[in-house]
Amino acid sequence: MSDMEEYRGLFVTESRENLDTIAQALLTLEECEDRETIDEIFRSAHTIKGASASMGYMKLEKLCHSMEDLFDLIRNGKLKASAPLIDLFLACTDQIDDILESIDGGGDDTGHSIDDLVSSLEAWTNGGDGGAPANGEPENNGVDEARPEEAPSPSGSGDMYVVGVDLVPECSMKDVRAMIVLSNLEEIGQIVSTKPAREEIENGKIEAHFEVVVQSEAGAEALRAAVSGTDIAGVTVDLDAPRPVQKPQKKPEEASQKSDHHERGREIKNLRVDLHLLDQMMNLVEDLVINRGRLKQIAQKNQIKEFDEALNMVGRSVADLQNLMMHIRMIPLNHIFNRLPRVVRDVAQHDHKEVEFVIEGGDTELDRSVMDGLNDPLLHLIRNAVDHGVEPPEERKAAGKPEKGLLRLSARRDRDNVVIRIEDDGAGVNYEKVRQKAVSRGLYTAEEAATLTDDQIIDVLFNPGFSTADTITDISGRGVGLDVVRAAIESLKGSIKVESIRGKGTCFELVLPPTMAIVEVMMVRINGKRCAIPISNVVEVAMLKSEGIHRVGNSRVILLRDEVLPLYTLDDMFGSFQSGEVLVVLQYRSKKCGILANVVEGQQEVVVKPLSALVGSCPGVGGVTIPGDGEVVPVLDVNTIV
């Protein structure tokens, strides 16, 4: 697959939009020669030409280029848009549409003949009439002479089967059951036809027996298993012989007619949807998830078999809808990554450095809500890597390194998270310089700074206003940096980690959830009140006896596996209590703590809603959720607690 293969769908969609613009404008131009309409045609043809050249479709580029030359003459008043010329242009749009159809199907433009159309366009450009007949078309209008309408035929692979289905006589919703059968068959094959027609089935015009012709590689038994189920009285699966496609002979008079291209229907495969509509749909899906949990609790309480069966079907549909919505909202990271090479180039030129920038994993997808908040942190880290990380060529040469530095940006999926790494082969963090800056800014005394570990020194870099730059430039030195990056990543429910080896380079690793809409939480009760804790912050749950709690000054601590952890009861949030026997160990970055709870109710997926503006900021609470019983439950903000 070529590098441009992934852009095929986008190219076809945008080119068709521009082609439709040209076709409509040509009809307007035929009625009234308007300068604005001519400019619109010229721009659209130019856009298709440029995109075709970048994708490597040179025949399409050549045809658009010839059209563009002729449009330029019309725009400059050197040629009048006569009816024969409009006919020629419309024949060109039909040919372009044929080429786009081939490209959309996985082919290219090499199988299409454009020579006659290009010759006619060039003849008009050179002052002739293109050798067109009275109707203004070239003798061959660019449409292949032998392109009859073919009978529909399956495009997949596998054997053809005729599946006969008999419904039980007492089935009250035969159309719904038949549509479920068709849906199941579509998952393992391609439906060629149905008897009665699918439209009649959807409209309820169906008896107890119907047939489906399906093409599948799964085999007869798999088809039988897919169809069998409730309200199905019997299933027959017979191997069907392939049907030859009859190609009608083209009548002689049809060859001279204008292209009937506009009469052929075209399936709409892409839609542009306003982001606000997607957000509204996501909110509705979130409400369905909440109500599904409520129905589950009702089902468990009443123990009604029929209700359980119906709920299971609804639950699967809601889960599928939820997954589909999450997929629709996913955007490849290339939307951000592709902007960064220019940033690297500009910063490297400003600093007189040579940097090779490598991007990997740009097809990794993130939810749009996460993507919106990721652009600025990534931009800062990339600028930081070039400005602070990679050394000037003379320093690299003296250190025995290549004069050109290497900056690598990569992304990958790691279980339920997305991991983004920004790595450079520069000088690494100057730990001694950071110590000196920390002392000079009053963050630590000289004695305290001398005892700092490498990890603690790295953490100093994230202090607000901290910078190791000696001079203020357009790129750095103003102290607006890593603290803002960390805050932005944490607002996305992610984390940032730094690894650096002096003289070898530095790596920033961002761990992000694929979506912020639905979160896995642990439900606990503290002093009888329910709350939710993000499962990503829970290290472990253990039983705790009162004698295991110790006091250090005014604080309480516990000793857990040779590690001393502070213990919180969250009295300010849930009221004072001392009887908790469950210890929940939480972690934020490298810090851990324990909280007391009465009971752990289990894990579940919830939709986290932000606090209302009327409530305002509430320390320790990151949002609220509504589980199945309808109770409003606070979601703890572990970052604040720890």
List the helices and strands and how they pair.
Elements: H1 8-31, H2 35-55, H3 58-75, H4 83-104, H5 115-125, E1 159-167, H6 174-188, E2 190-195, H7 198-202, E3 209-216, H8 220-227, E4 232-240, H9 275-302, H10 305-328, E5 330-332, H11 334-337, H12 340-351, E6 355-360, E7 365-367, H13 368-372, H14 375-389, H15 393-398, E8 405-414, E9 417-424, H16 431-440, H17 446-450, H18 454-460, H19 482-491, E10 495-501, E11 505-512, E12 518-526, E13 529-534, E14 538-543, E15 549-552, E16 555-560, E17 563-568, H20 571-574, E18 582-588, E19 591-597, E20 599-607, E21 621-625, E22 633-636, H21 638-641
Parallel strand pairs: 6-8, 17-19
Antiparallel strand pairs: 1-3, 1-4, 2-3, 5-7, 8-9, 9-11, 10-11, 12-13, 12-20, 14-18, 15-16, 16-17, 18-19, 21-22
Textual characterization of the structure:
By secondary structure, the protein is α+β, with helices and mostly antiparallel strands. Helices cover 40% and strands 23% of the residues. The protein has 21 helices and 22 strands. A six-stranded mixed sheet has the order 14-18-19-17-16-15, with no helix packed on it. α1 packs antiparallel against α4, α4 (83-104) runs antiparallel to α5 and α6 packs antiparallel against α8 (220-227). The radius of gyration is 34 Å and the shape is flat. It starts with 7 loop residues before the first helix and ends with a helix. Mean pLDDT is 80; it is low at 130-153 and 242-259.
